Amino acid sequence: MVVLVVNCGSSSLKYELFAGDQSVCSGLAERVGVDGGQHAVLTHKCGHEATAQISAPMPDHTVAFDHVVAMLTDPEHGQISSLQEIEAVGHRVVHGGEQFTESVLIDDEVIAAIEDFCELAPLHNPPNLAGIRACQQRLPGIPMVAVFDTAFHQTMPAHAFVYGLPYRMYQKHHIRRYGFHGTSHRYVAIEAARYLQAAGIPPNQQKIVTCHLGNGASVTAINGGCSVDCSLGFTPLEGLLMGTRSGDLDPAIPLHLIRAMGMDVADVDRLLNTESGLLGVSGVSSDMRDVMQAAEEGNRQAQLAVDIFCYRVRKYIGAYAAAMGGLDAVVFTAGIGENAPQIRRGCVKGLEFIGLHLDEASNNNVGDDQEITVISTANSPAYILVIPTNEELMIARDTAAIVSNMTQ
Ligand code: ADP
Question: Into how many domains does the chain fold?
Answer without folding.
Answer: 2
